[in-house]
UniProtKB/TrEMBL annotation:
<dbReference type="InterPro" id="IPR004360">
    <property type="entry name" value="Glyas_Fos-R_dOase_dom"/>
</dbReference>
<keyword id="KW-0479">Metal-binding</keyword>
<dbReference type="InterPro" id="IPR037523">
    <property type="entry name" value="VOC_core"/>
</dbReference>
<dbReference type="Pfam" id="PF00903">
    <property type="entry name" value="Glyoxalase"/>
</dbReference>
<dbReference type="InterPro" id="IPR029068">
    <property type="entry name" value="Glyas_Bleomycin-R_OHBP_Dase"/>
</dbReference>
<dbReference type="InterPro" id="IPR051785">
    <property type="entry name" value="MMCE/EMCE_epimerase"/>
</dbReference>
<feature type="domain" description="VOC">
    <location>
        <begin position="2"/>
        <end position="125"/>
    </location>
</feature>
<protein>
    <submittedName>
        <fullName>VOC family protein</fullName>
    </submittedName>
</protein>
Length: 130
């Protein structure tokens, strides 16, 4: 078994597409800016984050027709230099909710939200820095 992707069901596909591509800097697979589906990949690793239009998925599972309420997901991305990456995100229009700050003695984190309110955690693993 292999994790292929984490898929987020979104209502404003175009805004979320721009966030994951332009703000976070992930590489889109096909360039489908208006959806209804797109996978984004980081520079390294094989798993990715995908967006899918909530209305399209609601055609398959009726219960998904309602808007999401509350935090239902947390996307976690590891970066090598959290401070620099957060500065880059801010220059591209992102607003940090928290951090960068220590979470444990082995990890620093920062948090932000995508346009749909999904939480994104950025992690810097301190043990990898030596």
């Amino acid at each position: 078994m292999e994790l292929a992707q984490v898929r987020l069901l979104v209502t404003d596909f175009a805004a979320c597409y721009r966030f994951y591509a332009e703000v976070l800097g992930l590489k889109p697979q096909s360039g489908a800016t208006d959806g209804p589906y797109e996978k984004f990949s980081p520079a390294t690793g094989s798993a990715g984050i995908a967006l899918q239009d909530r209305a399209m998925m609601a055609e398959v599972l009726d219960e998904l027709g309602d808007s999401a309420d509350g935090h239902r997901s947390l996307v976690v991305l590891r970066v090598d230099d959290l401070d620099t990456y957060c500065e880059q995100l801010a220059s591209r229009g992102a607003t940090l909710l928290h951090g960068p700050s220590p979470m444990t003695d082995r990890m620093r984190v920062a948090h932000l939200k995508d346009p749909e309110g999904n939480l994104v955690e950025l992690q810097e693993w301190l043990l990898l820095r030596g």
